[in-house]
């Protein structure tokens, strides 16, 4: 059959994500701090958006009310009707264009507090917290400041500066003397002399090339150069690492008490002398949801502290309705007005969805609130998605980077989605969550004898005695996640 080229029309249905829907999805996966920043950014870009003042807290009743902060269904519908008259858009058309029912589902529970708590001040009026904090001195600045008083010449200062510039975050020298000499255009002997003087700077043990040199420098600073601790540091650190006290006593030919005193001296030293200069910023966690127990019931409330209340600027509303205004101006403001309406609706829908997802999670995890981590049930995203009629991706976005404050502590929402661990006997249809097993391992290790720590196999046997079916490699994985070393690493020498 001959091949030919021809044109044909084909009708297909495809799902296209509009910019508004993309914005709604983006808002859904933001945590509270990120949402606040996003709202302020939208206010900068959209002149129609304005921040409501405290006087706007009352429920809108007049025709000219423009606040969108009240989340009650009646008030919200009344406000949407007002904007529909101005923009020529009906509520039915908006809902048809953005199918919220299929995307997020209908809202069945009302949050316990209204959207819009917080200050009415603009971001420019409120100074940032960092304004009141002094800048932290870095390791490099601290050492250079000292080196300026010690360097004997410009060339010597340059060599020391090169050495300081090649220290890692723990304070160890990462380059060889040959490389330092080449970088500073100096001889190897001059570089060695400069390094020896840099190592006398504060903190003790700085610019060492390995752990042995680091600890030795600190011992010299304490005038313990010829002590038993220095001998152990130079020749027998491996035995200390293995916590082999009998082998250490045999190698040194000393009694137990002398060796233990020397080991105690080594334990008082800092293997990372620059740790106090780490510039790691602290990570602040602000819960997005609170669960409080009132009487015998748990009440869910959204954290809306600091979230700005949004409304539409009245002057721009009047300009849109003014027939004498230029057409291009009215068209521009109409587009911005629709964007403002959709943003406010998206924020309300986000809050409602987070509330519903939280409510569904703790419908499954009520025992966790009552009795603790040991009663955490295994659960996957599909469980909540099926319960609410949402897609799993929606549940994943809602729970991403969000935290909840419960009577049991602050947890990430994803913490409550956990893999199952089977039971050996009994009701195998009721597995345990991996978090509850981790908590059990933590309790077992916490109660062990420090002189005779339990092996992973022994922990497996204890767990199996509690009707938990688990493999040794799984115990080792959970132990490492919890931050515990092996039995040899946990063993104490006395």
List the helices and strands and how they pair.
Elements: H1 19-28, H2 32-45, E1 49-51, H3 73-87, H4 91-97, H5 100-103, H6 139-150, H7 154-165, H8 177-184, H9 188-198, H10 211-221, H11 228-235, H12 237-242, H13 245-252, H14 256-267, E2 289-294, E3 297-302, E4 310-312, H15 314-321, H16 327-364, H17 366-371, H18 381-388, H19 392-399, E5 403-406, E6 409-412, E7 420-421, E8 432-433, H20 434-446, H21 456-465, H22 472-481, H23 487-490
Parallel strand pairs: 2-5
Antiparallel strand pairs: 1-4, 2-3, 5-6, 7-8
Helix pairs in contact: 1-16, 6-7, 7-8, 7-9, 8-9, 10-11, 11-14, 15-16, 18-19, 21-22
Quick recap:
With 494 residues, the chain is of the alpha+beta class. It has helices at 19-28, 32-45, 73-87, 91-97, 100-103, 139-150, 154-165, 177-184, 188-198, 211-221, 228-235, 237-242, 245-252, 256-267, 314-321, 327-364, 366-371, 381-388, 392-399, 434-446, 456-465, 472-481, 487-490; strands at residues 49-51, 289-294, 297-302, 310-312, 403-406, 409-412, 420-421, 432-433.
């Amino acid at each position: 059959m001959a091949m030919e080229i021809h044109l044909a029309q084909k009708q297909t249905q495809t799902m296209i994500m509009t910019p508004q829907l993309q914005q709604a999805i983006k808002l859904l996966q933001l945590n509270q701090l990120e949402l606040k920043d996003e709202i302020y950014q939208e206010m900068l870009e959209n002149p129609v958006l304005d921040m409501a003042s405290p006087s706007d807290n009352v429920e809108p009743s007049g025709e000219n009310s423009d606040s969108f902060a009240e989340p009650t269904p009646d008030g919200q519908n009344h406000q949407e009707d007002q904007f529909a008259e101005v923009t020529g858009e009906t509520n039915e058309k908006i809902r048809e264009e953005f199918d919220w029912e299929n995307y997020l589902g209908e809202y069945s529970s009302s949050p316990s507090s209204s959207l819009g708590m917080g200050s009415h001040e603009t971001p420019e009026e409120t100074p940032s917290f960092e304004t009141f904090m002094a800048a932290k001195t870095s390791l490099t600045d601290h050492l250079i400041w000292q080196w300026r008083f010690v360097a004997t010449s410009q060339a010597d200062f340059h060599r020391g500066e090169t050495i300081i510039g090649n220290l890692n975050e723990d304070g160890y020298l990462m380059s060889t003397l040959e490389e330092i000499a080449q970088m500073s255009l100096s001889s190897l002997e001059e570089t060695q002399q400069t390094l020896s003087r840099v190592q006398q700077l504060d903190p003790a043990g700085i610019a060492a090339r390995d752990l042995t040199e680091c600890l030795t420098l600190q011992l010299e600073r304490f005038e313990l150069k010829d002590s038993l601790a220095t001998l152990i540091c130079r020749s027998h650190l491996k035995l200390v690492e293995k916590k082999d006290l009998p082998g250490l006593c045999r190698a040194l030919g000393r009694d137990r008490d002398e060796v233990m005193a020397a080991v105690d001296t080594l334990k008082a030293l800092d293997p990372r002398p620059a740790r106090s200069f780490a510039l790691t910023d602290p990570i602040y966690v602000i819960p997005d949801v609170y669960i409080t127990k009132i009487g015998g019931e748990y009440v869910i409330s959204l954290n809306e502290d600091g979230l700005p209340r949004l409304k539409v600027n009245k002057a721009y509303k009047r300009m849109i309705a003014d027939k004498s205004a230029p057409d291009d101006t009215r068209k521009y403001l109409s587009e911005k007005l629709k964007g403002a309406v959709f943003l406010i609706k998206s924020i309300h829908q986000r809050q409602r969805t987070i509330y519903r997802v939280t409510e569904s999670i703790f419908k499954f995890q009520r025992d966790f609130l009552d009795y603790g981590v040991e009663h955490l049930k295994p659960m996957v995203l599909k469980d909540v998605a099926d319960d609410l009629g949402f897609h799993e991706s929606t549940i994943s976005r809602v729970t991403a980077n969000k935290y909840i404050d419960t009577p049991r502590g602050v947890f990430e929402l994803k913490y409550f989605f956990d893999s199952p661990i089977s039971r050996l006997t009994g009701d195998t249809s009721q597995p345990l969550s991996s978090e509850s097993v981790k908590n059990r391992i933590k309790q077992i290790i916490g109660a062990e004898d420090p002189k005779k720590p339990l092996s992973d196999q022994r922990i497996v046997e204890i767990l199996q005695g509690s009707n938990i079916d688990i493999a040794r490699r799984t115990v080792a994985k959970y132990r490492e996640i919890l931050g515990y070393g092996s039995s040899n690493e946990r063993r104490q020498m006395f």
